[in-house]
Structures are given as structure tokens and as C-alpha cells.
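Notebook entry, structure prediction.
Reason for the run: the old model in the group folder had no record of what sequence produced it. Starting over properly, with the input documented here first.
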Amino acid sequence: MKNESRTLRPRTFLILAMTVTLALALSLPAHAKRNSVVIEGPGVTVEKKKGWFGTEKQVYQDALGNTYETKKGLFGRKSTQSNVFGSQVVRKGNRTEVTAPDGTPLVTKKKSWLKGEETRVNGNGMWSSLKQLFED
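New structure, fully documented this time:
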């Protein structure tokens, strides 16, 4: 008897590859997840979206228009934004910022590896917000 090694012929390999590809293509939609979920109630909306590569976004909104939003981005970067009666608090990475309803920054806080923690308070922004509050 001869010592013959068995190898796949190119035609057999092509048929096998096409069969496996077709089987996977037909079964993938059955295992697919829903990408977004929206729940609405009386004046309340909750929305959750899942994107590609593990990104996520969640938005909660009440009847008065106040929102709370969290995002998880690529490489695990997280950001949070809340908006209550026009004032915003944004936290993205190592930076936190509080802004007044007219858009002027009130407090900015940064964390740095070299400089440590740095906090800036804008007195003019706070004064103009208080002035607007008591003038009306």
C-alpha cells in the first residue's frame, strides 16, 4: 500500500466554505439583539440605545424637559450630562463643568495627572445668574 496523504481538493473546499457561510448567514438574524428601546409614559421618556463596538446611550427625560443622559463610548470612555431647568452639568472624562441657563460657565473642574486637580469658579457668571433671578 502506498502512503497517501489526504488533502481537500479546491472544489470540495469551496463547496464546504459556501455551505458554512450560508448556514451562518441564515442563523444570524435569529440571534440579533434589538439596538434601541424606547419607553414612554405620562410625560416621561426613557430611551436606551446600544451601538456597535459596545457603545451605549441612555436618556431619561421628564415632563418638565429635564434630562439625564449617560454615554459609554469606544474604549470605555464615559460621559454624563444633566439638564435641570436650563442649568447643565457635564462630566466628560476628567472634566466637570456647570453652566448657567444662559450658557455661561459657572464652575469648571479638571483632573490632570501632572497638575493634580484644578477648579475654576467664574464669579461673573454666578453674579449674572443671581441678577437675572432677582430681577424677574
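Summary: The two ends are 104 Å apart (CA to CA).
The old model has been moved to the deprecated folder.
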